[in-house]
Target: BMP family ABC transporter substrate-binding protein
Amino acid sequence: MKKAKLFGFGLTALALTLMLAACGGGKNSSTDSTGGKSADGDAAHSVVIVTDIGGVDDRSFNQSAWEGLQAWGKEHDLKKGADGFDYIQSNDASEYVTNIDTAVSNGFKTVFGIGYLLADSISTAADANPDTQFGIIDSVIEGKDNVVSATFKDQEASYLAGVAAAHTTKTNTVGFIGGEEGAVIDRFEAGFHQGVIDTAKELNKDIKVEIEYAASFGDPAKGKALAASMYQKGADIIFHASGGTGQGVFQEAKDLNETGSKDKVWVIGVDSDQDKEGKYKTKDGKEDNFTLTSTLKGVGAAVQDISNRALEDKFPGGEHLVYGLKDGGVDLTDGYLSDDAKAAVEKVKEEIIDEKITVPEVPKDVKE
Model:
């Protein structure tokens, strides 16, 4: 594989693009190839994403990818469908191979696997279909000129989340809930845990980090149960990196906050701004929010960028593209952080960018 490269999009710029993107559609008039259509009206390029089991409405990883692809379609006046852009949803891991085969059979020129769990299926399909371009998000496939790999420095944004949690917790107990164990979620856990511990030392606090895994990215019930246990143990902030499972974490926090049975608890969102998931009404009927902050991950930006390169016959096959804080590939929202917490996050962010802080990608053995 070619040497890894860093490419920055700027998450703010992407957000503006996504706000303008429709959920499909487009004009029927033909444009030149730079506008997405060939002279005879056919799409000059077509792109599809094959989701992980969370689906395009997981309010997280898959949804970000789909929003990025929709923005690409809107940008180039393309329709949702086989001659433009589309998604194929996986409801179970057993569907990955079939869904990728369907994407190839339908003639899509670039096929993305959204999530590291699709890496083996994408790799196999790339060998069988050398004329099709493939992209894998959150994993690396080496030695194939028709595959581009895109990964993110999740540990950097997660470290910032740890700093925010350490500055905010009142109980000095915080939690982390992961989906399935693996190299990607390792980065989230490692960064968050280190951010909490480093900040606790600076603040002269003794903060405990509870860590649990749901063994699934699509099990809200398990997420809710794990969150209930953590909050019961005294955690007042939970950072989840669990895809659709995280919906259960939000539901448990909402139930606790609406009943007012204990002091306010918080959730830290993942991959996209999950502020909306934290809206609730207090026991006395007031509007409030418990999404403390969210880590941002430019999955949609990566899909959009690679799709544009493919359209321009500059598909970065064989390359590994890496996105981090320095190039705007990951970040953290301000959310409802205190001024002190925001200042601390900003300070640490600059230190990471300046390489004064190196954030670990592999967690210490802290699981109970």
